[in-house]
Amino acid sequence: MPELSRRRALGAAAALAAGTAGAQLLAAPAASADGHHDHDSPASFDEVYKGRRIQGRPVSGGGHHHGDGYAVFVDGVELHVMRNADGTWISVVSHYDPVATPRAAARAAVDELQGAPLLPFPAN
């Protein structure tokens, strides 16, 4: 049985990390039950980092988000992010390196991918 290389592990993690980027994922910011926006949700961002376009924004309803209703994309492919109980963020690409914001999680994923494409995460 061949050994699992770091590149193969990263590729598998990237495949598990991302979902298909669709219009429903780019919805308006999430609102609380009383109709007010969640003020704890990080601000949206859209930038080019090391030649890769990274974006993040609050989302509402549907999808498979575990990041408090927040979606992050690398080159249009969703990067699966999660918010920890202490307020830090992780992605499946940089799961063991918590960072302060979803933007930092996107940047860490780009660093870890080292130019490799982020593969879409298959929906259930």
Automatic annotation (TrEMBL):
Region (Disordered): 28-65
Pfam families assigned to the protein according to its UniProt record, in alphabetical order: MelC1
Signal sequence bounds: 1-23
UniProt KW keywords: Copper, Signal
Keyword Signal: yes
Alphabetical list of InterPro entries matching this protein: GriE/MELC1_sf, MelC1, TAT_signal
Coiled-coil annotated residue ranges, if any: none
Family named by the database record: Belongs to the melC1 family.
Protein name: Tyrosinase cofactor
